[in-house]
């Protein structure tokens, strides 16, 4: 009971002091502070297919596409730098995603998350001067955070036990916080809280909510060994995986809306 009350108090405290710092409205997408775009031909601004009247981002994943396919043509990506010259050490990112009724989860794929340092903090990177906290969707609507954090840091035994990485030494990233996140044919709101660790300490935090229900919370995170701050959003979405069994068997589409970042 004491642990539950402490967790509830923390959640209330954080939510009460969050300060809105940036809102991503797709009606004004041209004004977003973005860079490093790729596969722009797979995205377009459309009306919300569920009839809200909002403008949303529609993303195409052509049949047979997955991330490690040579010349992959599936999904899309760009990076958002919303903080200007501010040095951000802790923030929340939330957004909504819609997977239509004909969506096939296959083995999974990437969704947006926060990042710090280099935009190339993925694909097996050692993450010595960067980090990323993208989400993933998985089979049957499963979801989790897919972390690139320093692979030479002194991670806690608790962290290692929670991740999908064998012996806490992944060839790729660290999957963590997995459970049922997604349904088809309705908007799902997902949110992550990232509090960066003090360099040399295991005092960072990762919290995940889905439709305002807390799914995961861990307070001994090590994101970095140096002073890399939170830089912005890694908006990346695609199927994969590094083998063909991750590929989407048919052309499918996803939709995104209501991006917002708060600090606390």
TrEMBL record:
The keyword Membrane does not apply. It comes from Brachionus calyciflorus. The keyword Transcription regulation does not apply. Coiled coil: none annotated. PANTHER family: DISAGGREGATASE RELATED REPEAT PROTEIN (PTHR40124:SF1), PTHR40124. Residues 1-19 form the signal peptide. Pfam families: Polysacc_lyase_14. Keywords: Signal. This is Polysaccharide lyase 14 domain-containing protein. Residues 52-259 form the Polysaccharide lyase domain.
